[in-house]
Amino acid sequence: MKKLITFAIVAIMLAGAFVLPVSAISDDANIEGTVDDFVAQFIDSKTAGAAIAVIRNGEVILDKAYGWANIETQRAANSDDVWEWGSVTKLLIWVSVMQLHEQGKLDLDSDIRAYLPEGFLKELRFDDKITMYHLMNHNAGWAERVYEIFYANPDDIPSLEQSLLNYEPPQIHRPGTNVAYSNFGTGLAGFIVERISGMLFYEYVNANIFEPLGMKDTTIHPTQADNPSIAERRDLVAGHSPVIGLLGIDETKPPVVMKDSDARIYLGLYPAGSAIGTASDAAKFIAALMPPEGSGGILFEARETLDEMLSVSHDYGLDGRAPGIAHGFWERFGAVRHVGHGGNTAGFSANMFFAPCSDFGVVILTNQMGETAITYGLLTELFGEYNAPAHSDGLENMPDARTFGSGMFLMTRTPHRGLPQTINILNILPFSAVDENTIDIAGVRFVQVSPYVFQNTFNENLLDPFAFISFEVDENGNAVRVSTFSTDMIPFMQLPGIIPATIGLAVIGICGSYVFYALIFTIIGAILNKKRGVEFSRVKKLNLSLWLLMAAVFANLVVYTVRLTSYVTVAALAPHYFVNIVYMVFALFGVGLMVVMLVKRAESSRASVVFNIFTCVNSVALVATMFMLELWR
Question: Model pTM?
Fold first, then answer.
């Protein structure tokens, strides 16, 4: 069963070392029929609605809407509807950066602190310089903070600068070592554009991208204040989600309309994901990235700048044998090399990819959270399947996967603070070799197609969008890093902060088990005592109060964890933090009273004394864990 993936899922891939055939892309005459037939498989069953535009040789050869703008009201989608881009918005950052680079105002290899206010970054762990290349390649080293950047009320959104100051995550990896997709890093790049240009980022994009391209039906402002008509039209398209059952997504039921409070959110780091517009407008942007040969087109003065932007900036050390990163554009392998970006918001999903060598591109916008059937499936349908080229050394001479060892890996794109860091441990991915050329990661089979590069066999699993993985091994042949798009994976125990997170989760589990069984025994005891006419003593009442406090915290943690699977806003998280703080205060007060009573021998039964001591120990342990996770920095 497909799992819902809430982190921004972005496809990548490249073909630097060999030429791929272009024949797999459909002829113009077949495009509409191909898209119609493919999309029809999913509309009404898995996907609510979609807007799709196809570009060839600078012309839009298909601009069509499918399905429903709102399933509930049966409003059909149309080509004038506006759709959220999500993280595809980041492409506007990288085009802006390369424009300033072309003008000589920004050096991609200089330390970005030269472009920032003095002391702006306060969470750096390493002295190494951080360059624009690191921001483009998502390997500047920052931890994830995906849960605190959304706002439900547009009036609450701070400026981009203040959002960055509020949101800065700790740097946990040395720059250049691990790829870990970063909204903070891309938002920071947008702020650098502001600093260099002297314009707010949305003003810069409007003046240097939207206006020159005639994109009148697109906005990037977090509240659409730069184009109010888009805000009005956005309200006509509902965000949808699949039906979630106890065992995951229920694929037997069509998607449902999300509550507006869930589907409509605002992003403080808006350069990283706030664009909204029509598919035809987005097609103008994609077409501008494929100008006539020798021309930089409307966006660049020189073709060399465009070619540089679309060239590989990070290839994972594999010399083009696996997809890489092209200055912020993710590469993807198919029958032809194509580059672009994907995006997800609370109620929308998107993909925009193009093949520069074929002057062919596609814009896919859907009004459904975590949609992959069309956003990823149509890419493969249009750009063709990837067939690994033959290698002179032969498959039998490739590295034996069984020498990589086996182990538990965690993604480097992980939270490092607060309760979300304990959830990391629940995302451990076990890997092991099936045979000399097959790897199993969390139940997904990957087959070696090139030395140290494995291709997904596309069985039903969470890792479906991960088409390729590659291994880095040490001098002994043991795997030390697994790379895939948007994030690397490293051995479980090598992730910074994993030990306190593991301890925290263990303490929460132990305390939760104690409270569960203690409450059961207390209820049974209360029933028996009532029959005997025995009343609860003050100590037992205090004991019960401490258990109930812990039970309230665990209920809070369950709700909190469930909410973290969606795009929860800052305001929505505040009550959970408040409950945890209140618990710490009252629990310590209750434990103090309990100690006083125990010293005064208010409870004579040895079993009761032991029980009370256990309650005190568990309460203090839980308070210490909550303090470590919520307040300790």
Answer: 0.87
